Amino acid sequence: MNEVMLEYTDLDSPVHKLTGATKLICLILWAFASMITYDTRILAFMVIAGLVIFKISKVKFKQVSFVFYFILVFLLINNIAIFLLSPLEGVEIYGTRTDLFKIAGPYVVTKEQLFYHLNITLKYFSIIPIALLFMVATNPSEFASSLNRIGVSYKIAYSVSLALRYIPDIQHDYRNISFAQQARGIELSKKAKLIDRIKGSASIIMPLILSSLDRIDVISSAMELRAFGNKKKRTWYSARPFRMMDYISIGLLVVLLAVSLAFIYINGGRYYNPFV
């Protein structure tokens, strides 16, 4: 059976040709640009640009689809929770109130509140494609060498590399344990009720933790036997130097962050207000 895993895939694309350090720096700059602003125009641009970059990377959507759907559910729950806790948050932010219809009690749907939820949604969707792309388009070993090259301790860089490398292994373990549970009569397919599927998934957690701890013990023993960490420096098989495209990519993200900061000054705050 073909499994769709959230793991690195070696493709011939401009995104894959960037060094791991460049991708990390660009991800950090992109995240800062998205987090510091609620300007709808900037967020909409970032959503479109993120989708274009994802398309250029040649990564198939099905490789990240299950994570994407999980985030969609989380976003829906988050928006509902915000409305239930503060139904007039948008009114307080934008300083005007345009009622559309009343639900019950203090829960009134306003244009300002809907616009506020739109910005929250855009904020999530501006980051999601780039974050997922970073995970599936970055070679863990090359990423570690790039981090070490820009001054990060090779011990820390190698730890990050191991974390990225073993995400697919954890997914494989989850699938295998799930199949084993189903073979014992625990229904986890779509045929089962939602509450039964949740209980069945919860029963996978403990075996998954134990298998992960066992893997950690094996890896740490192997690294100790090879005297990992005894030297101040180490060489890297997959090291790659920075190229012109790396500097251009970082430069473009610096410009994006600067524009995001400039719009905060122009708007007199983080929020773009179309109601005044």
UniProtKB/TrEMBL annotation:
**Bilayer topology annotation:** Multi-pass membrane protein
Q: Where in the cell is it found?
A: Membrane
Regions that span the bilayer: 27-54, 66-85, 114-137, 247-266
The record's InterPro entries line, in alphabetical order, gives: ABC/ECF_trnsptr_transmembrane
- Indicate yes or no for the key word Transmembrane: yes
GO CC list: plasma membrane
Q: Which of UniProt's keywords are assigned here? A: Membrane, Transmembrane, Transmembrane helix
Name recorded for this polypeptide: Energy-coupling factor transporter transmembrane protein EcfT
Q: Which organism is it from?
A: Inconstantimicrobium porci
